[in-house]
Structures are given as C-alpha cells and as structure tokens.
C-alpha cells in the first residue's frame, strides 16, 4: 500500500504481526554474532593482553540509543583501549536475551536499557550483574497517526505499540497512561488504551497498515514512523527533570568484574573516550554509527530517519542513577514488578577512576552502589 495515502484509509490487516511472542524478539540463540567490521577492529601487532585475557565478549543493540557501542566499535576506540585483548561483539534485539546471555556466561559486558537491568538484577537476587557506566539519555517519543490522534487526550481508546511487555518504553508508557487517570491491565495491555507489544522491526509496518495508531518507541524507530507520515505527539524527555533520563547503561557480569577489573576499566575508558569523540565530532559520529548499523544489519538508515533520531539522543557517562530508581518505581506501580531491592546494582568505582584520570567529575549512584568494606 503506498505510504502517500492517508493513514486513516489504510486497511487494518496485520494486527497479528504487532503481537509477536516474546521469544521471537531474540535474534538467534542468545544473540547474533556481529559481522566482522573494518581494520579499526583489528588487534594491533605487539599489543599486550590485559590480565592475559584473549577475548572480551561485548553486547549491544542495533539502534542509535546504543551509539556509544556502535561508534566505539566502528572507530576502533574500544579495541584500542583493550590493547591485545580482542573485543568480540554480539548484537541483540531485546534486553531479556542479553541478560540471558550474561547469566549463561556467553557475554561479559553489554550496553542495555534500564528495565532489563532492573529485572535481571532483581530476579537474580542481586547476584548476576552490575551497572558500571552510563551511555545515553533520551531518544524516546510517542509518535501517532495524525489522521487518528490530534491531541494527548485522543490517545484514549487508541492502539499504541511499545517494543515489549515490561521493557523500558512499555513501563514509561504505562506510567504515563496512569498519570492521565486511565486504566490499563499491564499484562494484557487492554483497557482505556490498548497497548500492543510489537518488535521495533515490525512496528513501522503495523503503523503503515493502520493496525496501530501510534507507538511509544526509541530511536530510530520513532523517526521511521515520522518518515511514514507520523507526528511526534510527545518527547519523553519533557517528562523528566532537566530532560534527562537513562535509556542505555553499561552492565557487566559480576563474575567477570571480580575476575577481570582491568578489562572492565579498559572498556569503560573506551566508552568515555567514545562519548567524548561523539561530542567533539557529531557529524562524523553519526556517520560512523550508521556505517556500523549497516555492517550489522545490511542496511543503513536514510537521512530523513538518521538526522532527527540522532538529534534527540544525548550521550553521557553518567548512568543517571536517580532516574533508574524512578523507572523501577514506575514498573512496581504498573504491577509489572514486585518492589525490588536495588542496593548494589551499581558499582561506579572503576568509572569514577577513569573519569578522574580524564579530568572529569565523578558520577553518583543515588545510594544504590555496592557496599565496600570500611577501611580500618
């Protein structure tokens, strides 16, 4: 069906596509082995291995909110920081599959959203992961069909997609719905608004066909929908103090952190240097992220999607711990999570050491950092 036709006239015929089972979100197994990239990823001749470790396994999602990983990989910044220890990459489509890989020991370090980190930490009784750094803020929008939705009040009674039951955007949308005074059953998604859990890869097709009226989604999916004729009704950043909220953090297996802290330090150094390079070279960084997306998926983002998506994301080494605590509270209020004990979810010791060496200010864990023995 031509995209130029008014969305209200398009046939509502693929609703089933927008309700994929949870397991369909995993790429293959725990994740997809990322394709070999350019010469920047090669280990430099004669470079020394850190802790004698041959390889560190790093995971990320193929979207722009994980651009620190995309750019750090494509530019070779992460590999340079790791010296003779080779960075081996895997890409994921959903947080639960990345957490599962971490738990299974097939992943050491990963870029991930706050809700999967919270859920993974809570379900393991605080034994599987630590958040060791920040990466990105923002980049989430409510995009709607302007033929069907002209105001925030019009969202009531409509079908709105989120990426996955209980994922970061799903929790945020459910929280926003509750603040409007509307009722929705969190598990089924039925109520005053119908929440349709849909893979980000499928949502643009569902939106184009008219089987959903809008979506609360991260970039670049939000800008894809705008390119399909959608309108940004709400930027989630407007709901947070200073327009800052965590969308991507760096996590590590507790076992790996204990056994290889120097390798974790190297990855965090690479992450900090990447964010600094992004800030100094925004146009080059945007192009680098797009090249890595093309390498991973076989398809680059067109300019009308890439440019607005990139503008809405802020890259930060600060994990914005207070906003993660708030997001956990939102999940509890929605009935998706029992009140978790998040004490110890952060260990920012290594990050702050890296930041100090770079002349940057330390970041705060909002009282949720791992307890360390007091020196006598």
UniProtKB/TrEMBL annotation:
The keyword Cell membrane is annotated on this UniProt entry: yes
Key words of the record: Cell inner membrane, Cell membrane, Membrane, Signal, Transport
KW Cell membrane (keyword) present: yes
Signal peptide range in chain numbering: 1-26
Pfam family, one: NMT1_2
Compartments it resides in: Cell inner membrane; Periplasm
Chief location category: membrane
Domain of life: Bacteria
Gene3D superfamilies noted in UniProt: Periplasmic binding protein-like II
InterPro entries listed in its UniProt record: ABC_SsuA_sub-bd, NrtA/CpmA_ABC-bd_dom
SUPFAM superfamilies: Periplasmic binding protein-like II
Annotated family: Belongs to the bacterial solute-binding protein SsuA/TauA family.
The protein, known as: NitT/TauT family transport system substrate-binding protein
Species of the source: Streptomyces achromogenes
């Amino acid at each position: 069906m031509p995209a130029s036709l008014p969305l209200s006239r398009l046939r509502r015929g693929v609703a089933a596509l927008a309700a994929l089972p949870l397991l369909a979100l995993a790429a293959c197994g725990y994740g997809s082995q990322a394709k070999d990239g350019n010469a920047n990823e090669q280990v430099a001749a004669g470079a020394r291995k850190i802790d004698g470790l041959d390889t560190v396994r790093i995971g990320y999602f193929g979207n722009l909110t994980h651009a620190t990983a995309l750019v750090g990989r494509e530019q070779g910044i992460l590999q340079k920081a790791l010296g003779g220890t080779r960075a081996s990459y895997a890409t994921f489509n959903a947080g639960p599959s990345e957490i599962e890989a971490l738990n299974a020991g097939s992943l050491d370090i990963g870029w991930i959203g706050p809700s999967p980190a919270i859920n993974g930490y809570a379900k393991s009784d605080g034994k599987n992961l630590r958040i060791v750094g920040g990466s990105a803020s923002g980049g989430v929008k409510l995009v709607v069909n302007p033929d069907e939705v002209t105001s925030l009040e019009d969202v009531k009674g409509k079908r709105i997609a989120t990426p996955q039951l209980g994922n970061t955007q799903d929790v945020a949308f459910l929280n926003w719905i509750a603040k409007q005074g509307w009722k929705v059953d969190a598990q089924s998604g039925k109520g005053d608004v119908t929440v349709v859990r849909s893979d980000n890869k499928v949502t643009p097709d569902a939106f184009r066909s008219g089987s959903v009226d809008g979506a609360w989604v991260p970039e670049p999916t939000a800008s894809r929908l705008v390119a399909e004729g959608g309108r940004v009704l709400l930027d989630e950043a407007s709901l947070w103090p200073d327009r800052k909220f965590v969308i991507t953090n760096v996590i590590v297996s507790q076992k790996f952190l204990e056994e290889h802290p120097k390798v974790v330090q190297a990855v965090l150094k690479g992450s900090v240097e990447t964010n600094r390079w992004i800030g100094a070279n925004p146009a080059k960084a945007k192009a680098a992220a797009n090249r890595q997306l093309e390498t991973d998926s076989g398809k680059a983002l067109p300019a009308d999607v890439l440019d607005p998506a990139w503008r809405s994301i802020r890259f930060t080494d600060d994990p914005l711990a207070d906003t993660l605590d708030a997001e956990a509270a939102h999940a509890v209020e929605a009935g998706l999570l029992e009140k978790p004990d998040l004490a110890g979810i952060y260990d920012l010791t290594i990050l702050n050491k890296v930041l100090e060496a770079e002349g940057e200010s330390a970041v705060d864990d909002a009282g949720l950092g791992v307890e360390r023995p007091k020196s006598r």
